[in-house]
Amino acid sequence: MKTTKTNELQGKWALITGADGGIGLELCRALARRGCSLVMLSITTDALRKAARDIESEFSVGALPLTIDLTDPHAMSIIAAFLLNRGIEIDILVNNAGIFSFKPLADTPDDKINRFVDLHVRATTTLSTYFARRFRERRSGRILNMSSMSCWMPMPGLALYASTKAYIRVLSRSLHYELKDYGASVTVATPGGIATDLFGLPANLKRLALTLHAIEAPDSFAEKAVKAMLKGKKQYINGFINRLAIVFVAIMPTPVRMLVKRKLLDKGICR
Length: 271
Fold this sequence. Notes:
The protein has 271 residues and is of the alpha/beta class. Helices cover 49% and strands 13% of the residues. The chain has a 7-stranded parallel sheet, with helices on both faces. Helix 1 packs across helix 7 and helix 4 packs parallel to helix 5. The longest helix is centred in the middle third of the chain and has 29 residues. It is globular. The two termini are 32 Å apart. The relative contact order is 0.13.
């Protein structure tokens, strides 16, 4: 998605998690295109450093990589020290880092369960709380939290992913109202059908789905999500079909949900 470079966010700093690829990298690009400097976080090293270098070169903004495991209990202290040592005051927080699994809860290893909770729930809450306090004091600031369309989908195989993403949505909506009187805002984005590698869709099927407009390119989604955040919107759902899907999933009868379990989970097609 081609858009014109602007100076809308010149002099501002954004902190983005999961910034080394996919939606996270496109969110970085959408912000940098507006003149915003970036602190880019990921558990990777090489991919993150390359992404930061590319953004600096293309957009002439600061792009600082910080390799960090957000499930580390000391992650927030590490991030705070990194910012303090460089004299950086964050104006925009983007909680994008996430993991995915399509597997029955009872078959999921304990360490994977803990990682879901630590990353989607604890890390998102800790970062949101830390910067909400700072934004409230300054009476300005934007937070963009990434949920998922699955937050409305109690489907077999998605117990961990959907429930933790639902937590992010409710947390964000509530925090939006808590910060509204202080000139700050929280936007929750609930992407559905984005052409990234998160769900493991083969490249040929991904291209076909894009051609049929069944899924959206990550750069297009990122641009719209950033626009919604900068406008102070409380929620962004991409696409009319996704909005309709929320209604249809809510009224989906149990036999249909069980069909998903028996055809996909029990036969191991999506594992």
